């Protein structure tokens, strides 16, 4: 499992030509100086370094500036990235509330999970940043903590002794680098978020259903769909997610714990870097040889290779995100397809958006540092459809009662085995009910005999 968060450019040795080109333009990438997407030349590097230095005085001496991530710096950079935004108007708030109210009525027919209740709010990008930052901290902090520990553990013993006196300063610089990259990523996400949790992650506060009307309007500009229909469709998706998060109490913690478990097993491998530097023979003292070695260094991948002893946690997270988004898409499509003819077009647009930007796997790659393959949402939609046909809506939603009842990653490719298991359980339940009826009847007969005697 490779990671690519925070601009450290951690990645595999077989990067594509574009990645190689970017590394050649910016040999300082492995040290944390690069664009938010890992790109950028000397100008970008100096700009980011300037941002880092300008924030030292105020950001390093606050509680939010301490620890593995400088969140004060992250929040300031994200705010700069967002820029000036208009406050949410009363008309926008009313439109959001009406869209959610209508979506909730329709969803009642396609799922057994009742409405989440709570508040319905309209946000602008600044609101999204402020309201979701606490959950992002929960997701990012363990990764940053264990990344720092793994980096220190990867150093030779002599190097660790030399680093010792400067460890506090290095930790602060690392926290600022993490904060800078986090701020760039969150600012970008705030400008593209349509709802409080449309990346599949429960980052919005509990019991809040939030939509971002200005972002929705911008995203819908290329769709030939009435604005009201788009608003109701997105409201339905967010309302469906909130029903899951509210009525499936283990779900949020399962998502967060998967990230924490992955982070706890982080390992940094620098053996290929050591081998490459030995081959360069820098100790020769020959100026021509050293110049040749430096030129060769420009084209080498000197990024540490990051893996986790708990890589299965990422696979579990990926499957869970696919099941959540697949369920949401299925129940929304079921409730709306006959009411709003443009539902199919909006669903297809959402799938394209998920594949090209603003999706859960890309949010993790940019912010948490976990690079997920595209979740199999399409396969999950088909699985939930087949389950619905086979055992009905009530038993379909009952699967969410416990994590052990959920489909596995293998079931996304072969739903028949999962459905067979549900059918077998159904037959067993029916037998148990009939047997209980028989026992009750026999007890009543015994009671009658005892009364007669």
From TrEMBL:
Comp. bias regions, Gly residues: 1-10, 31-40
Q: Which Gene3D superfamilies match?
A: Zincin-like metallopeptidase, N-terminal domain
> Which intervals of the chain form a coiled coil?
none
Q: InterPro entries, per this entry?
A: Zinicin_2 (IPR018766), Zinicin_2_N (IPR042271)
Question: According to the UniProt record, where is the region Disordered?
Answer: 1-40
Domain of life the protein comes from: Bacteria
Q: Which NCBIfam families does UniProt cross-reference here?
A: putative hydrolase
Instruction: State the protein's name.
Output: Hydrolase
């Amino acid at each position: 499992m490779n990671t690519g968060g925070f601009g450290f450019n951690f990645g595999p040795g077989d990067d594509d030509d574009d990645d190689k080109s970017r590394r050649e333009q910016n040999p300082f990438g492995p040290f944390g100086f690069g664009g938010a997407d890992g790109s950028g030349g000397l100008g970008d590097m100096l700009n980011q370094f300037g941002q880092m230095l300008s924030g030292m005085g105020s950001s390093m001496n606050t509680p939010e500036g301490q620890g593995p991530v400088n969140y004060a710096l992250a929040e300031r950079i994200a705010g700069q990235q967002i820029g000036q935004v208009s406050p949410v108007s009363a008309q926008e708030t009313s439109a959001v509330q009406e869209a959610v109210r209508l979506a909730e009525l329709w969803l009642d027919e396609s799922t057994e999970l009742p409405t989440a209740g709570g508040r319905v709010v309209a946000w602008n990008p600044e609101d999204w940043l402020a309201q979701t930052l606490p959950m992002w901290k929960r997701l990012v902090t363990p990764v940053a903590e264990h990344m720092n520990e793994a980096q220190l553990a990867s150093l030779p013993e002599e190097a660790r002794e030399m680093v010792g006196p400067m460890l506090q300063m290095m930790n602060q610089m690392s926290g600022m680098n993490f904060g800078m990259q986090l701020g760039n990523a969150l600012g970008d996400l705030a400008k593209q978020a349509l709802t409080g949790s449309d990346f599949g992650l429960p980052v919005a506060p509990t019991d809040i259903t939030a939509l971002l009307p200005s972002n929705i309007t911008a995203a819908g500009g290329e769709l030939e769909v009435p604005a009201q229909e788009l608003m109701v469709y997105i409201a339905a998706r967010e309302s469906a997610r909130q029903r899951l998060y509210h009525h499936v109490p283990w779900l949020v913690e399962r998502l967060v714990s998967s990230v924490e478990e992955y982070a706890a097993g982080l390992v940094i491998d620098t053996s290929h870097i050591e081998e490459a530097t030995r081959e360069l023979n820098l100790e020769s003292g020959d100026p021509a040889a050293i110049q040749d070695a430096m030129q060769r260094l420009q084209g080498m991948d000197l990024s540490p290779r990051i893996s986790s002893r708990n890589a299965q946690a990422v696979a579990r997270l990926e499957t869970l995100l696919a099941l959540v988004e697949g369920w949401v898409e299925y129940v929304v499509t079921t409730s709306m397809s006959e009411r709003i003819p443009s539902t199919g077009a909006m669903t297809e647009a959402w799938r394209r958006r998920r594949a090209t930007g603003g999706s859960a796997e890309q949010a993790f790659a940019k912010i948490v540092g976990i690079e997920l393959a595209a979740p199999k949402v399409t396969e999950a939609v088909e699985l939930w459809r087949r389950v619905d046909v086979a055992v009905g809506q009530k038993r379909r939603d009952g699967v969410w009662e416990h994590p052990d009842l959920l489909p596995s990653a293998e079931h996304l490719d072969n739903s028949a085995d999962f459905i067979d298991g549900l059918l077998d359980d159904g037959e067993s339940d029916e037998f148990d009910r009939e047997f209980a009826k028989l026992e009750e009847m026999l007890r009543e007969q015994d009671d009658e005999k005892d009364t007669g005697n």
